[in-house]
């Protein structure tokens, strides 16, 4: 048979039993909508997570801070402190799945000077070998700083480079933006009173690294000035030596205490395990992951429920198609016998039935996709309240994110899937049709 | 004179029904020549249909061999058989076996559809043959909307449309009244003569076998006798010809060759009448 004749004959057979075909197609539509909506909600959830990740920083990062704020039963915030030193650092470093760990010192009393002008910066003092691990942006030339390059280089974030410097000439204030390629810049520690007997300690910056802008343009990296902790310690010790004896002791002691320890875990899935380990060591820790976790669990459960509904609906529609095809073969037994005697090849009989089953699946799939878009739209428009109640107690959904996202490949996948379900469920009935003996078939009425 | 187109060699078909074995066809040998009208005659249950189905490859032989155009029909794969049917065989059935959801035209087109003939050419061929059988005005009718005689004419058109070398007909007039029977028999005969096609027809009706050139009498799955009918003598029966050696192979063939029937002249008259009737009906439909 020519393919065109086969198609015509198949379509004609389907339209001969309109109600039955329609009901079978409706079954496939329900199955398709369930599956497409399930996938789209799954994708929507994932995209919300990714959006949350973008807003809140990397999901693999854990922070152990020396000061922790907690809300008690009365709704009051109280802080507790914990001591973070080299020992804590090494213990944490030894935990499995910890990829990078760095102490962090935020020294707010470091001033930037350029001639008469003065500026301020948020200094991030860390182990620059870990810089790349924590997802900070690359330098403008595309490379990342490390301990070697950071021996005498300080790195400015994209916004920090634009910071204005001020000068008070006694009557009015003047501002200027520093050109890091030409202007000389110095750093002074201003934590303790200057010891008049010693020369004030300044760091004359020889090299300044420029960090490219982060994707969001306003992340921590953009506002910060990065300095390696070894470089800091070296200069800070020299600074301490210029101080009066009491101050010197305090300053040197402060070098042994970190404000924060930042940890990067090699995989999102181990973040809570690592946090448990840190807890066992007696330290409190926080991560974005711990806020996202409940939301993720709810989403996964929802996906599972939807997936089960979709799978059951699709299974039922597959059985439905098979049933329709078997009925159709019973009805057409005689016809099949006649066709065979008139020279119709067995392969053509099989193709005919597979085509009929496949078309039911394909039409169901295509209409199902259409309805899925409607369902997806309804979900995005009216689904907010439902989801919010499901997500109560968690971070909620990122602003502007969608509950149901149908990517461009999903319609094609669904159409193909529908057709495959049809063809697969039509396979055994079709095989049965080919086995019908012409002589028996012609005797039947 | 002419070469055999069908050779049946010691064909056997045994049905097993539980412990019982039914020898429906029991060691039959004969030949059919090209262009011959061969009739399998016998009482009900004698095994005629089974034999025809064996020859057409619809049933599988238990043993023996059947050659059509020199090819063994029993040894063919399903696909080969389908192709062989498309090219060489046509069928007319007792119960017409038209497809109820299709019009007369579509039913006649069907063998050509399987043969991969293109739509336009196919329609032209089907229309022409439907006009030939006198159904020029009924092409768009469904089988239900036609009389038995008309349905069988569609059946005949379908059997002949692809100009097969052999047309098998199993009691083609079994469901028709005597009047229509004559029309249909005439039609089959005239169609076959036009293209020198071979007909193998099954019947239990002694009178209908008069249309044949060769009558094979079947009894209990065996050949009782083979009778050659001579139509050359104007209405007169001629003595039966001698049987070919192949035809005598059947072990049980002890019965003498039957005499040709005496009422041959009457039969010819009936045929003439039927031709007229057919023409009348053609007028009616146009
Ligand atoms: N499929 C079958 N199974 C068992 N027996 C059968 C079958 N077909 C035919 N027969 C038997 O074979 C014999 C010949 O049948 P058939 O060829 O139909 O006879 P006829 O056509 O001469 O009336 C009968 O006895 C019939 O009962
Ligand atoms: Mg019979």
SSE sequence of chain A, one letter per element: HHEEEHEEEEEEEEEEHEHHEHEHHHHHH
How much of the residues of chain B is beta strand, in percent?
15-25%
Biggest chain pair interface: A-B, 23 and 25 residues
CATH superfamily of chain B: P-loop containing nucleotide triphosphate hydrolases
Give the C-level CATH assignment of chain B: Alpha Beta
What is the H/E string of chain B? EEEHEEHEHHHEHEEEHH
Give the overall average pLDDT of chain A: 85
Indicate the radius of gyration of chain B in whole angstroms.
19 Å
What is the gyration radius of chain A calculated from CA atoms? 35 Å
In total, how many beta strands of chain A?
A: 16
Task: Kindly estimate the percentage of residues of chain A that lie in beta strands according to DSSP.
Answer: 15-25%
From the spread of the alpha carbons, the general shape of chain B counts as globular
Low-confidence stretches of chain B are 234-286
Number of domains of chain A: 2
Strand order of the largest sheet of chain A: 4-15-1-16
Per CATH, the architecture of chain B is 3-Layer(aba) Sandwich
Integer tally of domains of chain B: 1
Number of continuous helical runs of chain B: 8
Main sheet characteristics of chain A: 4 strands, antiparallel
Helix content of chain A: 40-55%
């Amino acid at each position: 048979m020519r393919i065109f004749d086969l198609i015509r004959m198949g379509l004609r057979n389907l339209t001969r039993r309109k109600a039955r075909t329609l009901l079978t197609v409706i079954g496939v539509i329900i199955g398709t909508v369930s599956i497409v909506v399930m996938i789209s909600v799954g994708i929507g959830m994932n995209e919300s997570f990714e959006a949350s990740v973008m807003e809140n920083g990397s999901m693999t990062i854990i922070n152990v801070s020396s000061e922790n704020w907690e809300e008690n039963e009365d709704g009051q915030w109280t802080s507790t402190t914990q001591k973070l030193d080299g020992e804590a650092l090494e213990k944490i470093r030894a935990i499995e799945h910890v990829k990078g760990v760095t102490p962090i010192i935020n020294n707010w009393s470091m001033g930037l000077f350029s001639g008469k002008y003065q500026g301020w910066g948020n200094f991030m003092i860390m182990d620059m070998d870990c810089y790349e691990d924590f997802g900070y942006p690359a330098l403008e030339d595309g490379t990342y700083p490390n301990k070697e390059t950071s021996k005498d280089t300080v790195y400015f974030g994209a916004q920090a480079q634009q910071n204005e410097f001020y000068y008070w000439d006694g009557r009015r204030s003047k501002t200027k933006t520093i050109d890091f390629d030409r202007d000389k810049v110095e750093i002074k520690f201003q934590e303790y009173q200057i010891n008049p007997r010693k020369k004030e300690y300044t760091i004359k910056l020889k090299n300044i690294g420029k960090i490219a802008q982060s994707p969001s343009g306003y992340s921590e990296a953009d506002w910060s000035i990065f300095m390696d902790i070894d470089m800091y310690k070296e200069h800070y010790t020299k600074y301490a030596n210029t101080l009066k004896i009491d101050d010197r002791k305090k300053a040197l002691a402060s070098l042994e205490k970190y404000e924060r320890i930042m940890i990067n875990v090699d995989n999102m899935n181990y973040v809570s395990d690592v946090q448990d380990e840190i807890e066992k060591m007696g330290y409190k820790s926080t991560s974005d992951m711990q806020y996202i976790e409940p939301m993720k669990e709810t989403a996964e459960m929802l996906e599972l429920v939807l997936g089960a509904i979709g799978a059951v609906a699709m299974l039922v529609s597959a059985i439905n198609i098979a049933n329709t095809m078997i009925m159709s073969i019973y009805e057409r037994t005689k016809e099949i016998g006649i066709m065979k005697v008139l020279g119709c090849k067995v392969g053509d009989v099989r193709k005919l039935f597979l085509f009929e089953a496949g078309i039911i699946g394909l039409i169901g799939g295509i209409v199902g996709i259409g309805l899925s878009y409607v369902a997806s739209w309804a979900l995005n428009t009216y689904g907010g309240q439902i989801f919010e109640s499901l997500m109560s107690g968690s971070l909620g959904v990122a602003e502007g994110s969608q509950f149901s996202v149908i990517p461009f490949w999903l319609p094609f996948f669904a159409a193909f899937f529908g057709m495959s379900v049809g063809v697969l469920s039509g396979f055994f009935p079709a095989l049965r049709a080919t086995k019908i003996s012409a002589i028996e078939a012609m005797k039947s009425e | 004179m002419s070469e055999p187109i069908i050779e049946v060699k010691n064909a056997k078909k045994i049905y097993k029904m539980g412990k019982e074995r039914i020898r429906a066809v029991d060691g039959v040998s004969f030949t059919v020549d090209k262009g011959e009208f061969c009739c399998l005659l016998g009482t009900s249950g004698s095994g005629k249909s089974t034999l025809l189905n064996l020859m057409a490859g619809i049933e599988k032989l238990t043993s023996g061999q059947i050659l059509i155009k020199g090819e063994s029909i029993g040894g063919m794969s399903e696909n080969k058989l389908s192709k062989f049917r498309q090219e060489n065989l046509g069928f007319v059935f007792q119960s017409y076996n038209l497809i109820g959801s299709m019009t007369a035209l579509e039913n006649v087109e069907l063998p050509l559809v399987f043969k991969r003939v293109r739509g336009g050419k196919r329609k032209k061929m089907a229309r022409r043959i439907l006009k030939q059988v006198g159904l020029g005005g009924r092409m768009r009718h469904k089988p239900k909307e036609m009389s038995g005689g008309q349905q069988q004419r569609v059946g005949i058109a379908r059997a002949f449309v692809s100009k097969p070398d052999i047309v098998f007909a199993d009691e083609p007039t079994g469901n028709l009244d005597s009047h229509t029977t004559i029309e249909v028999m005439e039609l089959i005969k005239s169609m076959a003569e036009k293209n020198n096609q071979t007909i193998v027809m099954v019947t239990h009706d002694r009178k209908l076998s008069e249309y044949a050139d060769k009558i094979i009498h079947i009894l209990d799955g065996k050949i009782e006798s083979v009778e050659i009918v001579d139509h050359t003598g104007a209405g007169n029966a001629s003595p039966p010809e001698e049987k070919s050696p192949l035809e005598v192979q059947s072990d049980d063939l002890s019965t003498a060759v039957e005499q040709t029937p005496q009422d041959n002249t009457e039969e010819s008259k009936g045929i003439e009448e039927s031709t007229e009737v057919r023409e009348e009906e053609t007028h009616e439909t146009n």
